[in-house]
Amino acid sequence: MKYKCPCCGYYTFENKPVKTHHDGSFDICSICFWEDDPLQLEKPIYEGGANRVSLVQAQKSFNNFGACRQDMIPHVRKPTENEYLIKYFYEELIMSLVTMSLPAKEQKYMIGIGYAGDEILEDFSNFYNDRKQFYLDNNVFDDRQIRIWMSLIDFLISMTVMLRIFIGILNN
Hints:
InterPro entries: Cys_rich_CPCC. Keywords: Membrane, Transmembrane, Transmembrane helix. This is Cysteine-rich CPCC domain-containing protein. By secondary structure, the protein is mainly α. It is built from five helices and two strands. The chain has three domains: 3-75, no CATH class; 80-140, no CATH class; 142-171. A two-stranded antiparallel sheet has the order 1-2.
């Protein structure tokens, strides 16, 4: 089983990213060259650590030129045909975050959501629980906005499951 890279959103990590300083996996993503650093996962705007740039900066860099930092371009690779993001959700998330009145450091904060079979539901759940705590800790959104986000994500999860069931029925 592979785990999602928090920078590019593709499932490239062999070990599950963890949030404790003592037992981080420190895997390196072969797509964006982000090193799993538990401190930077816990504090996405922290600059330093294993990657020298914050997770937020790395996500912006990946969106701009396909690597967590420009000097890492020689070490990255393109995703294979079996590695992809859920494009609709990814684009909606970016647009929503960019257009809301966020603090300057949080504008264009991007999270990619990957797909790895049945693990997708767990991934969405972890995604919005982690983001909720981050937004509350940093006073980015109020509780009402977070409830709206969570409702939207629940709806997208339901639609994804229904689509997968429908495709399964068509294939039989």
